[in-house]
């Protein structure tokens, strides 16, 4: 009787986990729609239509990265909560509703065109506040999902989840850009239309989280770690401090953080300006820019299953080294696009190049996520995720700011030097990764 009860309970748990993972996958697709429209090339194009400078475009990319500095605080706050789900709602819901303010600003700007410069600053302010709130919830979300995904299926599950997200991106970007380009009220009003749809998608993604198994962080830690202070209220400050610095006591984690920060700086020194380079230097229409970005997402989607199997088979560190070498030299290929004189040849070059980028970045995205889960101590998992995101955020923000400053003072010609410098620094940043230890590798 007890065995039958245990089997029935085990079956229910498996069904609940399966339902949770499906809900998380749908959530990933809807969240991608929201993030693609409230960031990336569409938001950059929106700011360019408002008259934003290259420095402001660089700030647009760096501000979310700076917000990641608050992820360790978010990890500590989430560990004090009694529900991963409730904590996520309190952070992600306001961060998405805030974009309604920009809709009001766009409506006001249609009656007063002089409001354009103020709308640029309003957009940057919303990016800051929205990403701060999202940063406070990111570590908790990663820890929640890491607890639900079985370790043996980690590579395959995250590859499937990323595929769904890439399908959403593949469909969202060209449709949204078409609406923006052909809207009778103009591109700015068209962006307002797609922004309203993205907000609805963002809210719908939060509904999916209601179908996921909730986790109580405090109960989870107390049940699994008998070394957790029993008199937590009396030693709360000491516990929080020890929880925060614990990852810095592990040499392997420190080496990974060095790699992660350097890679973020090197990549973001040039990456935010690739779309700007196509829009301003190559004079490519926004519709075609979003099309090649969508094709890149399609290549990313197709290669995720391949990289997912390789991740489960050989580990994530070899994956990151191999793909990192390929990504390191891509800024040089961007320089070659300026030498293509025939427009038809340029389109072929951009298509092939973006397919290569998408397929290679699939390995980077998957490997980066999985190696953090693999090397992070379970007890301090949320804290390490937060610290890693903060370190990457600082490095990425410094890279974007440095790139934006160089592009601003050297005008668009400065982008060529930025691309070359980025390629060199990307190769250098891979050196610490050689010394990261991963059991599966």
Folded structure, characterized:
By secondary structure, the protein is mainly α. It has a single domain, classed as Growth Hormone, Chain: A (Up-down Bundle), CATH 1.20.1250. It has helices spanning 2-37, 40-49, 54-67, 71-80, 84-97, 100-111, 116-148, 154-182, 187-208, 217-224, 236-245, 251-268, 274-281, 286-314, 317-328, 330-337, 343-375, 381-409, 414-429.
How is the topology of this model organized?
Blueprint: H1 2-37, H2 40-49, H3 54-67, H4 71-80, H5 84-97, H6 100-111, H7 116-148, H8 154-182, H9 187-208, H10 217-224, H11 236-245, H12 251-268, H13 274-281, H14 286-314, H15 317-328, H16 330-337, H17 343-375, H18 381-409, H19 414-429
Helix pairs in contact: 1-8, 1-9, 2-3, 3-7, 3-18, 4-7, 4-18, 5-7, 5-9, 6-7, 6-9, 7-18, 8-9, 8-14, 12-18, 12-19, 14-17, 15-17, 15-19, 16-19
What's the CATH topology label?
Growth Hormone, Chain: A
Briefly, what CATH class? Mainly Alpha
Helix proportion range: over 70%
| CATH-defined architecture | Up-down Bundle
Distance between termini?
Answer: 43 Å
Specify Rg, calculated over alpha carbons.
22 Å
Shape: globular
Note the main sheet.
none
| Low-confidence sequence ranges | 1-6, 222-237
What is this entry, summarized?
The chain has 19 helices and no strands. With 441 residues, the chain is mainly alpha-helical. The chain has one domain: MFS general substrate transporter like domains (Growth Hormone, Chain: A).
Which features would summarize this protein structure in a list?
441 residues, mainly alpha, Growth Hormone, Chain: A, 19 helices
